[in-house]
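Hi all, long-time lurker, first post. I run a small reading group and we've been trying to get comfortable going from sequence to structure in the token notation. Rather than ask abstract questions, I figured I'd post a concrete chain and ask someone more experienced to write out its structure so we can walk through it together at our next meeting. Sequence below, copied exactly:
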Amino acid sequence: MTAGSVSVVGAVAGAPGVTTTLLALVATWPAERPVLVVELGPAGGDLATWLDLPAAPSTVTLATEGRHGLSAELVWGHTHPLPGPGRVRLLAGPPGSEQALAARRRLVEAGLAGVLAGLDADVLVDAGWVGPGPLLGAPPAGRLLLAVRPTVAQVRHLRARPQVAADAAGLVLVGTSPYRPEEVADAVGLPVLGIVPEDARAAAALAQGGPTRRLARTPLLRSARLLAGTLSTQPTRADAAQPQRPAPETLRSARHGVSVPPAGLAAANGDRRHRDDDRGPRR
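-- Answer (accepted) --
Happy to help. Here is the structure in token form:
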């Protein structure tokens, strides 16, 4: 991943840990590379509250000052430093959804995508829930990663949003059950780029903003380190070559060599269809 590229992490349903995943990535990102974290979720931002930062500056103050045009200097001037081993800053979202949506709309109209792509930094965007329409303008800026739990309900939500899936580069699985990564990938036609385990203690420690060194051996950070390595070494620009995906009408199971109906994982996995799949991943 080169300086000036943008990775967007979001979800299509539920709360599968987008913000926690982003914090874990920040904690394991190569320390020599500057990082900007941007909160653009429609429900507003959490990080300023979690990390006891001032309410301003934020996307709201940036949208107000940048209504006639944005620049790299202006964006950096509305960020907070974040704790961690590297050079990390945060462009925080406000806690309220109305302010968050209004600020995001004004920033997109002012050209935020182009400014982020031109920064001499790796940019990680917390998109929260990915709604209809492009997040940062058309064409999408950067690479979209969708966080999803490996359950029938979450997979069906994703299959019901074919345009979002078409724009995505891959999945970040939150948890490892009840379905395996290859089963989820087969069902939605997207590669699994990383797996983030359920690790409540490490997630809580990250949210408190304390030192991350003592968390280095936790399952959450070990997995995030692998994902950060993938993101930091592969192209992430929107115009990077994307893998070919199966046609939406039917998916091919690499494991069994049979057609998988779009109805979901349950129809494709025999005796598993009776499992209580809509529970979250087991701890």
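A couple of things your group might point at:
The longest strand covers residues 122-129.
The chain has one domain: 6-241+251-274.
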